[in-house]
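In response to a reviewer's request, we include the raw inputs and outputs for one of the modeled complexes. The two entities were modeled together in a single run.
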Amino acid sequence: MFRYNIKLALRSMRRNPIMTTLMIAAIAVGIGVSMTTLTVHYMMSGNPIPQKSDVLFAITLDSWNPLRPFDDDRPERAPHQLTYADAERLVNLAEGKRQTAMFETSLIIEPENAGELPFEVGARAATSDFFAMFNVPFLYGSGWDQGADTAAATVAVLTRQLNERLFGGENSVGRELLIQDRRFRVVGVADTWEPVPRFYDPINGGFQEVQDMFIPFNLTRELELGSAGSDWGWKSEDIETFEQWLNSESVWVQYFVELDSPRGREAYIEHLDAYVEGQKQLGRFERPMNNNIYDVMEWMEYHEVVSNDSKVLVGLSFMFLLVCILSTIALLLTKFVGKKGEVSLRRALGADRRTIFRQQIVEVAVIGVAGGLIGLGLAMLGLKGIIALYEPPPGLARLDWVMTATAIGLSVASGILAGLYPAWRVCQIPPASQLKTL
Amino acid sequence: MGFRPMLSSLMRNKTGPLLVALQVAVTLAIVINSLFIVIQRIEKMNRETGMDVNNVVVAYVRGFGEDFDTVSSIRNDLDLIKAIPGVITATISNHVPLSGSGSGTGLRTVADEAIEPTSTARYRWDENGLDSLGIKLDRGRNFYPEEINDYLPTTNLPAPASILVTQELADALFPDEEALGKTVYWGSMEPSTIVGIIGHMHGSWVNWDKLGHVVVQPGRPAYTTNKYIIRTEPGMRDELMPIIEQKLGEANQRRVIKSVETLEEMAASSYRRDRGMAIILVLVITLLVGLTALVLVGLSSFNVTQRTKQIGTRRALGASRLDIIRQFILENWVITTAGAIIGCALTVAIAYWLEVSFETPRLDWRFLPTGIVALWLLSTLAVFVPARRAAGIPPAVATRTV
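The model returned the following structure tokens for the whole complex.
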């Protein structure tokens, strides 16, 4: 019976090739456009670390100017980064299960042999917990241990790409790099790791690639590492030495803590308050107590990681899909008018309403699936276009299985939605009413 | 004859026309709002920068090693670059306008910390800075060479005596007075005197509402990364870029040439999101209008076929070809007008949603009538061809098939 339905559907579609093409095109374009924007939005607003997003927290301390808040538009917010000295002390207090202080910097890898060229790499200075906290996968070796943190050892973890570039992709653990006249030992090579959004640093860009390498945070002092990310200051301080800069009120270090469970939140804020209370005794932190912690998704919300443009595009493209569905309904209705004779005849020959209804729905579903498949192709094309336009990091504009399933579901749903009313209308045609005109 | 039979044929089958009217309405709402966004983005990208963007090259270099002498390296580099034929002049700057990376500060007209400072982008470059970017000084003077000091990361000189500000910043600081010659105060409460007013220039962050706020301090910043801004003779830029890169590379082996880029490319990448949005929306508009037009054509052609008998009968009863065309056009006009009315309400609703949720500017009302006229023309065009075919149906056809 089903095969007969399909056969009839195809025959009916062939009878009006222009109408059929238009309907399939309408659904295809609607699915193509809406799936493109939806995929980007889905990736932007996705949870980059679902296993742990509720136990990883970014922290903020209000060390800002006593006269005015950090952000005039949102006076309740403390600065989104910490001073170096505060971050250093909090890491040493080690109140959380794990914690990391970190910032972006850049280093020059110097050539070992004559004829080779030096080149600059992006690096992230972080403490040893970074890798375990953020589930960084390793291809070779591992992160460094706390001993290396304490000793400010010249060790490095490379990304897969940098390892590819420097060592041709082989196991480089134990190999050395010359950076700022010092020998850095490779202790680990991370496997492909592309968190989208790059949740641990939305401040310097939630949709950037992970830096080329990681080095211990405690090297900052010895190597006089500068921040390649943003820094904010409010206090006018005389800074002549690097040590004075590290002890200044400028905020440029990011801090994440991992707690045992989401319930540890209040206790941790109390710990921060106690720390700040101690600093207040020393004459710092003159603003009212305002320390906070944000879990990963709250932190994404805080930084408005999903762009407004993306939201607007999703809204507009779903209205586009609505137009496509309306088109399809109008086309189907018009087409069914022409089917009156055939339907009357089938009804007169004994087909009941359900049979007729099923026939129409099958026809619409065929159109929906065809449109959906072409639409999926268009969405892939659209995502290629997005990549060309925005040059996003890998992973942002990719149709994963969730989105593919959504696309197929959406197109079938659109097809059925479009087909229900016209099919119902067709069923209302009384048997034999049209036969006299045949 | 005209309205009555058309209306009655519309009323006989209400759903179809209603659907078309709805489709037209949503199309109108999407197109108008998208077009409005596109035009805003284009205007944003085409703002006057105040700089000779097309003839500027920007080179980033970074020395390494303990004994790297940044100060003398900068002097050598600038001499070397300026000696290249075709280069007008060059400067070193702490940041590059339009690049997205910059430094901000706050200025006050009174030395009182309690007063809210006026925020602005801050640059530091030498006496060739203005010329290197093709910026016009409106009045006052440029920096004198003797005012230019070297700034290492640890340099802690007092605030410079002389600074330049843009007219826009001057207006924000001194709303009703001439700013030239006035004193302003930095966060440290140190004073500086405004010695020159720049007519107009853009700062670093193209999405900032105070993009035209710029203050310039005299100096040669000698930080880790040295940023050179180089202006070339018109049309020479592209051929000079590899030469600049090569000469800089040869001058010193203990450093990395991070990039040699045009200012045009840097600005384009700062505006990438706006450009992307505009392109996507134009594509959406094109697809949508194309689809709606095709559907309208498809529907009316089908209608014509369906109504062959009716048309034939009318023709046989004396209706002229023009009457038939008029019937179809009128029918279409009623549907489109109904669509336009619903569409207007929908357009305003979407515009309101955009304004409230995303702080976009209010929709310009003139877009509505323009959109309706365009829609009306398009739909008339879409229906005209099938209507003419309908009019061509000979009266005899009617008698044959009944």
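As requested, we also summarize the result in words. Chain B touches chain A through 61 residues (CB under 8 Å). Chain B has twelve helices and 13 strands.
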